[in-house]
Amino acid sequence: MDAKPYIIGVSGGSASGKTYLLNQLLNNIPATEITLVSQDNYYHEFQFQKKKDDGTVNFDHPDALDLDRFSRDIHTLLHGHSVTLKEYTFNNPNKIPKMITYLPTKIIVLEGLFIFYLPELNKIIDLKIFVDAEEHIKLSRRILRDHSERGYQLQEILRQYQEDVVPMYNLYVKPSKEICDIIIPNNQHMDKAIEVLLDHLRIKSL
To answer: Where does 6-204 sit in CATH, by number?
Structure first.
């Protein structure tokens, strides 16, 4: 590619609706024009995670992810080269991880809790988006998602949410709202906001 890709960062609390927004972008922009890079695939393997005193892992802390590799891979894409890595399956024994290849395209979307955590990445992100929702709504969505998609039991979901999710959100994720260009409230729906965003991206992909 001759020109620098248009870089979008999408962050927000757990179960705020980031995945829905991203799916709408991917479904409405040709695959040859857009690449989604999710931070979810950059978690350290469980055996390499730092354990708390009770033996559990705080997956909502930046240290749970290999952010250095994430940054390197983004710069690799910016230089016109593809990136391949193994899918992270959230320790779900019923899911076989696949290999994922990210291709350099005109639009690159970065998604995750800590997209805006690294200063060197903030400098290259052209459009910063924060998806927001009220706490009780995020919790109900997370219960449904983590049980059906990740095989977690209710007691574990609630423990993680109280001990890790909320404190880490307030400390590391919520403050990034201050530097975002667009804040999308998603307590009920965000379809109109997505329409506006799609119109903007279609222009950028020309």
So the answer is: 3.40.50.300
